[in-house]
Fold this sequence. Notes:
8% strand, 39% helix, globular, 287 residues
Amino acid sequence: MAFGPASRLGVALFEDTAPIDLWPNRSNEEVETVIRTVYKQVLGNAYVMESERLSVPESQLKRGEIRVREFVRQVGKSELYRSRFFDSAPRYRAIELNFRHFLGRAPLDLEETRAHSTILDTKGFEAEIDSYLDSDEYQETFGENIVPYIRGYKTEAIQSLVQFTHLFQLVRGSSSSSLKGDLAGKQPKLNSLLIQSTPTPVISPASKGAAFRNPTFTARTRQGVGSGDDGKIYRVEVTGYKANVVNNISKFRRSNQVFFVPYNQLSQEYQRIHKQGGAIASITPVN
């Protein structure tokens, strides 16, 4: 179910679409749906020509010789993927896109991206792809039969509000592409943000000045005690779309609520809002 004003963030289709899985005795049409969905997710909505499709792995999947996770692995290790997202992109852009494509979220922090950079240095490209598909997180979330999907806006998929905001630098709506439609081109979107652990504005992809690029901003800071980066203030707009608590009447249900939250309390506030059935509609700095 779409969650009202929060759908302005461009995630309503993700919320409304059930995970795609492949179990035994599925029809040919259902297998084709799985194949198309894997290409769409792993290749970041890029168009795939018939001549670019991986005919051998597709046939193996159709015959039941491999499962969805192995098909995802073969697409990720293919020359098609490597040429688009690795050979032609800076290292940290490639890594952040791997997180989007294989785990459906943004990296947690700088240390997580550094760990994957080390894998590239010591073991190479294929080991980097394996590190996502063989992770406990992938196995627990998608297992052998579910196609990966965008989930980095959900509380259970991330650990902080900063990470939540970073997803929207990688995914600006359900039709956004990993390759096209962004003035940043192939340059890393999150590297400097991860280094400084900086949240970014979360606003509608259709808003004026918000499309195609990471908006520049400088948030107002408190003076005196608490001034500096930790004193930055953010405006968090919340709308209620379901009640996750025993009391079915959430205080966020009747209308949007606005909170002004210091930077160092963003993660705590994010968890509290979601526990009480609220959905974040926007996060913007107070200028």
